[in-house]
Amino acid sequence: MLDFSSPMHLILILLVVVLLFGGKKIPELMKGVGEGMKEFKKASRLNDEPEKKETGVKESEIKVSENK
Fold first, then answer.
1. Structural domain for 11, as ranges
2. Cα radius of gyration rounded to whole Å, the chain
3. Is residue 2 part of a domain?
4. pLDDT of residue 51
5. What are phi and psi of 49, to 5 degrees?
6. What pLDDT sits at residue 61?
7. pLDDT for res 38
8. Is residue 40 part of a domain?
9. Residue 41 belongs to some domain of the structure
10. Is residue 1 part of a domain?
11. Which phi-psi region, left, alpha or beta, contains residue 25 (left: φ > 0; alpha: ψ -120 to 50)?
């Protein structure tokens, strides 16, 4: 397994990225990654909400029906 805990490893990786993509493309790449992460978080939040709203039955209604 790779161990990237050394600062020299991180510097080497950054140098390779700069050489491959160039200095002007890196901000564009990071912007794209950030937007992708925002969309992913938004989609995951939207997936959680419908499960709660699907039944249309409130918790208070459930408690009342259990007491009868």
1. 7-55
2. 24
3. no
4. 53
5. -65, -45
6. 55
7. 93
8. yes
9. yes
10. no
11. alpha
Structure-model confidence comparison of residues 9 and 67, the more confident one:
9
- Residue 9 one-letter amino acid: H
pLDDT per residue as tens digits for the range 4-60:
678 888 889 888 888 888 878 888 888 998 999 999 999 888 777 655 555 555 555
Long-range contacts of 54-63 (CB under 8 A, 24+ apart): none
Q: How many domains does the chain fold into? A: 1
For helices 25-53 and 7-21, angle between their N-to-C axes, nearest 10 degrees: 100
* Residue 50 burial class via C-beta count within 10 angstroms: exposed 0-12, middle 13-18, buried 19 and up: exposed
Handedness of CA 56, 59, 64, 68 (dihedral sign): positive
Q: Are 26 and 17 in contact (CB under 8 A)?
A: yes
Contact 21, 27 (CB under 8 A): no
For position 35, what pLDDT does the model report? 94
d(CA 5, CA 13): 12
